[in-house]
Every structure is written in C-alpha cells, then in structure tokens.
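Pipeline run #58 for the internal structure catalog. This entry was flagged by the ingest filter as a single-chain record with no existing model, so it goes straight to prediction. Upstream metadata was stripped on purpose; only the residue string is passed forward. Reviewer on rotation: M.T. Logging verbosity set to normal.
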Amino acid sequence: MTIQQENNQVKKNYINGKWVPSERYSTNINPSNLNEVIGYFSEANKQDALDAIMAAKDATAIWAGTGIQQRSDILDNIGNKILSRQVELGELLAREEGKTRAEAMGEVHRAGSIFKFFAGEVLRQSGEAIDSVRPGVSVTTTRSPVGVVGIITPWNFPIAIPAWKIAPALAYGNTVVFKPAELVPASAHALAEIIVEAGVPAGVFNLVMGEGKVVGDILVKHKDVKAITFTGSVNTGRAIAVEAVKNMKKIQLEMGGKNPAIVLDDADIDLAVETCVQSAFYSTGQRCTASSRIIVTAGIHDKFVKAMQERMSKITVGDALSESTDIGPVVDEKQLVQNLAYVEIGKAEGAELVCGGEKLTLAKTGFYMSPALFINTTNDMRINQEEIFGPIATIIKVKDYQQALAVANDSEFGLSAGICTTSLKYAKHFQENIQAGMTMVNLPTAGVDYHVPFGGTKGSSYGSREQGSYAKEFYTTVKTSYLSA
C-alpha cells in the first residue's frame, strides 16, 4: 500500500547509516484486536536490498578492524538498552505477534541477555599455537569474520531470534543485512533503532523489511553475501540451501520440528501434564520446539488423558495483553485457517478430538482458537508427521518405553524431544538414543537457555549450531598460519 510518509506510524528501512523511505508500506495489525493498527512498515524493493548489501560489503574492513573492546562495549550497550525497555518492547511484541505479555517480556529479556553474552564473547576470542612437525616452523590458528551475513528470521520469536543471529554476527566482526518476517516488522524495527543508537557504524548493520521473494531472494543469490542464517519453513530452507551452494555461501538453517514428549508409566502425572501443556499449547503452539506428539505408555494412558482434559479446561484464551490470558491468538488469518484445516484432517484420519479445535469469538475480534487435543492416533497420520505450528497436540498410545522411543524417532524431524519419568535408567537411555539435537527430562521441550547450543538433526537443522560459544563456527572462518624463524 501507499501512504503519506509524514505519518508518525510509518517506519523506514535502515541502509548505510540512514533511514530510507519506500514507495510501498505494509500494515501491521494486532492479531488480538483486528481493529488496531500497530504501524506501517517499509517494503524494501530490489534496489534497497542491493544498496544494503553494498553498504555492508564496504563496511566489512572497518568493522573487522574495530578493536574488540569497542565492539564489546557496543554490544553490551545494545543489551542494556533492550533490558531497560523491557516493558515497552514486551508490550509491542505481544501486540504484534500475539504472544502473552509475560511470554513477550521473557523474550525481550532473553534478547538483551544474548547481546550481553556476546559482548563477553568478543573478549574471549582465542586461537592456538601449535608445534610444527618441521623444526624452526611455528603454527598458529586464528579466526576471521566471514564477511557480509544475510539474516532471515521468522515471525514466532520476533526479537529473540534476530538477537541470537545479529549479536554473534557483529561480535565476530561481520556486517549484517537483516530481513525480518513480514508479519512482525515492529519488533525488528525497534531492535534496529536500539542497534543504531548504540553506535554501530554506518553500513555495519542494515535493516531491509519486505517480502521474502524480493529481499530474501537477493540475499540468498548475491555473490557478496558470504553467509545466510535462516529460521523458517522446511520448504524455504531447502530452497535457500540449493541457491546458496551455487555461490559457495555458508548456510545455517533451522527449519522446524515435530517434537515428541514421552510419558512413561512411572512418571509424576501432575508434572507430566503440566510439562506437556506448557510444551504443546503455550505461545499458542507457535514454537519449533513445541511438543505436538505426546507418546504415552499404556499403564498411565487413560489417567493421563483425563488429567490433560481437566488441565486444558482451565486454559484461558484471550487478548495477549490481558493478565488473565494463558494463550493468545494465532498470528494471522492464514495460520488460523491452516490450524483449523488440520483439525479436520485429524478427524478424517480417524483420530478422536477430545478437546478444543474451534475458532473462538471473543469480545475483541482476533484470530482465536481453542487448543486441541486428539487421542486414538497413530504415528503415520498426517497430524503426527507434518508440522502444524499451532495449539494442536496428539496422544499416541504405546506398549512400553521401547515402542515409545521407536515412535518418537519415526519422524523426518529431530529438533527437541522430552521424556517424563522417574527412572534414571530410561532417562539416560533416552538422552543417548533419541534422534534429536536437544533433549529434556521432566521439562518442557520448548524451554532452552541462550548461552548453550541450539539446533537439531535430520530435517530440522542444517549447518553448525546457533547460540553460545558454538556460534563462532558459523560466523568465523579458521586461518592456519605458518612462520619460519
């Protein structure tokens, strides 16, 4: 759409140290209240993306040559600014994406903590001095920045995921072209404002909001973008991989999951129920680490199903900013339609819907649905194989732990997996044999720390791990240097 640029709700792209207007803008709507416009946001065109890439390329030497103390101070400043605006940014995030206020506040705090962590990592960079097999020759290994990094992020964590990609990119001396998801530009723009205010030099950080088929396509194909880090759908991730390899780019892909949560006969049932409810339905199920397959052994199955129904009856769906809300709306109409379609698919496959799965009409018009629970499902059903990305969970009844593990591993995904048990034997066996990048024992599958590696196996992830000290594997290259005395 085209609107007057004087409108104080209009937010521009940031390219080469300047806020750049666009000919077209998208309207950002609150999914909890469709009558509320959050703002209007630039839609970058092809030239905007090219300008951002050129600016980032021109700034590579400047930023890589900036002293580590200065880079550390800037990142720490960004983290402090985020944390000082936690309430403001949390409310903005909740209004934009539909995550509850409490969850949004937690996400903002995580984003600030990530920047502060990598402020420390700047100062902890190290290399090695290694004896050569040849007398009189010394060998050292050091790490160098990759160069221009293209960052493409999803809508479900609109400030945390950008933070855990931008922070290490800048920490290790790279320059950035950042394309956020079209659905959540407000949080991305607020983060960009903070990065600019913290003193990042012109060209080092660039924000280009817009469509993936325009901005994302250029980032993936342009020869001067040396690395692409992407979080999003499987199909898009695979397409990015094909294109990126043509130009020999480094790629890092996080593409979703169909995460299992096993509940054994010996589990603490109250803990198991709360763990599964938190995993499956909070954040409206819109997390790649959500547990959508709950695998329950026969001895506890019926009792567990009854307890789940009772617990789900107490879940309040509502406005993301309301203190009484447990689960906010779905992010947009397209996602809501897809969720409801999967409810019908489950029914058609023979699964029994025992809770929810309905579109809700509340006081404020929004994209609301009641969390759904299916029982009597089998692992070959579409609702157990395809990532739904909504508040829909299934229960699969199995004979014992061995069958539970086999069912859990029967998936093209392998991001996060959990088990509820009081048996140390089964807990350890599970952690060693589950085909997933992250494992949880008596914990929700969706809770992860910011200072340790994040990533999965099989179709969930491709490339080196994100977060923590492991981030350097993607954002740097290793140089081996020989010197003859």
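catalog note: Residues 129 and 140 are 4 Å apart (CA to CA).
catalog note: The longest strand covers residues 33-42.
status: ready for reviewer M.T.
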